[in-house]
Amino acid sequence: MLIFILVTFFSLMARTEQHCCSPDGFHCCETGPCNIFCCNCDRMCSRACLARRGKRSIIEDNQDNQTQRRFISIDTNGDGLITEEEGRDFLLNGTSSDRAKRAIGSEWFAEMDTNEDGFIQPGEFDYSLA
After folding, report:
1. Count of domains for the chain
2. How far apart are the C-alpha atoms of 26 and 22, rounded to whole Å?
3. Are the C-beta atoms of 96 and 102 separated by less than 8 Å?
4. Could you tell me the residue range of the domain that residue 85 belongs to?
5. Which end of the chain is more exposed for a tag (fewer CB within 10 A), N or C?
6. In degrees rounded to 5, what are phi and psi of residue 110?
């Protein structure tokens, strides 16, 4: 029985680690669901995943700065809003094929544009930017 519990525990940990530390360059480092840009995640980064990214990432303020930098890098016209085109361009340039495939449709944009104004506001992108 103990062996079964240990095997189950470690297999779940492996799955969590795979979900948590995405190899696609976004460093989607959460144990809960995130949006298509690996922001606005339900939970904080796991310590094991943060250790892989480097000690400086453990500081929450730095995570907020990374989130803000990501928002700014997607907002190519600098108006403080992300259009569907800006988001799609970001996702299709140098990201994993899974994210690029999801970028083709507009479901991801509609999910993020919670106030339905046609833009992704900073607070819709990530609660820390509200």
Report:
1. 1
2. 7
3. no
4. 20-120
5. N
6. -60, -35
